[in-house]
Amino acid sequence: MDFLQQILNGLVLGSIYALIALGYTMVYGIMGLINFAHGEVTMIGAMVTITVLGVLANAGVDLPGAVMVLLALMVAIPVCMLLGFTIERVAYRPLRNAPRLAPLITAIGLSIVLQNLAILIWGRNYIPFPPLLPHDSVNIFGASITVLQVVIIFLAIAIMVGLLLMVEKTKLGRAMRATSQNPAVAGLMGVNVNTVISMTFVIGAGLGAIAGVMVAANYDQAHSHMGFLIGLKAFTAAVLGGIGNLGGAVVGGILLGVIESLGAGYIGDLTGGFLGSHYQDIFAFMVLILVLVFRPSGLLGERVAERA
To answer: Which of 33, 164, 290, 292 is packed most tightly, with the most Cβ within 10 A?
Structure first.
């Protein structure tokens, strides 16, 4: 029973990690860049959603909870998409042909800037997520999972499948794959590489906004530093599955979530009570170290654009 409970908890975490990891892996697959500011975009999506929910409540809007959250998301997603576009256009495009260290330092700097911007707007304290979504428990063979968590899992799966189909079946997806293979040749074949790269950031930011709301709704709170840790874990998931590989990001995210949940559930027994469940974060970074040491290309292999 306890094992099944940890697996269910891991699936919820893993679905969120996978959704955020897709943003990392899409950008890396096309540009060879780790966008460390992506976690902060996720955080801003959660914060904007909570703010819009507060505005709607103060305005006396009385609609079903799911509809209220959906309306707030319809504001948060475009905000995050615009932020993703701005980040690419202002911070990364001028450094596209610079040495790899320059955009990496820029990404870390952007992460810090966005964290502090969030502190200025929303403060340092935890902000509660309004109790609008169902938290009723569902019993599965003795394990418990809430209706909200079931929705998170299935919504994340639906979004990930939709993204994979978009990449494989649409004109934009073909342009993204061509740019990923070789940006210079794709440009010669008529692909607008700048537009493709911008759209990659925009789509990744939209996914991040949805994931941020999932995190805030699942834990009933959000705060200005939430994006840093969850961003690092999602990056770990992308590396675990194979950075630049969309399928790898999904597999890595779910696997990391399950590993972390099982670790949190059994670390106390394994260490004789020396370590508690609040040490669960160490498992993500242990996995990252092990993958980098024994299989740097990830479980499903790394994909990265050729640099012209």
So the answer is: 33
